[in-house]
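Q: Please design a sequence for this.
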């Protein structure tokens, strides 16, 4: 089984799996079901920690009649099999205790509610349209180290930024503003997943955190918000993120934003507040900052 991840890497995943083609008695399209063993899931989790969410798969089998792709390599199956669940797959979110800048000052994320006005980098004060959370136990973090939070220590991004240690999920993107970003991407500002910045001094996997509660915030559009005074993203309504929040939360979001339900099938993607880097280029960006001893944020 070859899996292509969100950063563009295509990786062979060792492990066993079996498949069945289900023909509904009532008619309709056939469904392909794949069951994976634990070795496959463990290996997949390891690669996800490096490359991010799975985007597509290439699966097939060999018989006397030749080789047959199971899904034509279109990748739809992996998304529904692995990410379309309530398992809490990695998704951009803040840890409990994060201070978010609002119209009434810095407020802990767990105290925020729908309708609260949040300071954004582009559009002033914007109301929260949806907010959700999920608590992960110590056992879950041990079993799935790829969802362990990333700690961005005080001042690790730039002068006084963040203003205190910041805990975010590995996929949560933070704003990088630098001349290095300008040379690499043609823009001074880019959003980079926290896990791709761990080579930078002061940014690390929070191994000492034994359990965590993650919070997601959704606005009318993808926004840059201020978390512990650092510029970071709100929930991006791309298909991977929506599949990762869980079925119940996803239905709440679709009730608020019905246009999102069918957008993925039409091949549409939402606008992002800033360009989004892939895993490979983000790691290159981090290494260049490290070698040149340059901060990730210069004054805007």
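A: Design:
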């Amino acid at each position: 089984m070859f899996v292509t991840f969100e950063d563009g890497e295509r990786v062979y995943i060792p492990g066993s799996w079996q498949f069945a083609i289900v023909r509904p008695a009532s008619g309709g399209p056939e469904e392909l079901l794949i069951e994976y063993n634990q070795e496959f899931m463990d290996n997949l989790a390891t690669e996800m920690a490096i490359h991010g969410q799975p985007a597509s798969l290439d699966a097939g089998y060999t018989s006397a009649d030749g080789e047959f792709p199971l899904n034509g390599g279109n990748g739809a199956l992996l998304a529904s099999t692995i990410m379309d669940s309530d398992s809490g797959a990695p998704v951009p979110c803040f840890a409990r205790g994060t201070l978010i800048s609002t119209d009434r000052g810095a407020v802990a994320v767990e105290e925020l509610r729908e309708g609260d006005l949040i300071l954004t980098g582009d559009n002033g004060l914007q109301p929260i349209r949806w907010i959700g959370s999920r608590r992960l136990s110590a056992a879950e973090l041990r079993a799935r180290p790829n969802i362990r939070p990333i700690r961005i220590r005080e001042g690790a991004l730039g002068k006084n930024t963040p203003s205190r240690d910041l805990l975010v999920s590995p996929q949560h993107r933070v704003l990088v503003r630098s001349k290095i970003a300008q040379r690499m991407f043609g823009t001074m500002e880019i959003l980079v997943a926290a896990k791709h910045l761990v080579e930078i001094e002061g940014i690390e996997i929070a191994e000492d955190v034994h359990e965590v509660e993650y919070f997601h915030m959704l606005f009318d559009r993808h926004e840059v918000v201020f978390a512990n005074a650092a510029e970071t993203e709100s929930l991006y309504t791309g298909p991977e993120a929506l599949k990762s929040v869980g079925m119940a939360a996803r239905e709440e979001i679709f009730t608020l934003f019905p246009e999102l339900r069918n957008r993925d099938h039409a091949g549409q993607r939402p606008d992002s507040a800033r360009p989004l880097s892939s895993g490979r280029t983000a790691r290159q960006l981090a290494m260049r900052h490290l070698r040149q001893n340059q901060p990730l944020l210069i004054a805007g």
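Q: Thanks. Anything notable?
A: Residues 62-68, 71-90 have pLDDT under 50 and may be disordered. The two ends are 45 Å apart (CA to CA).
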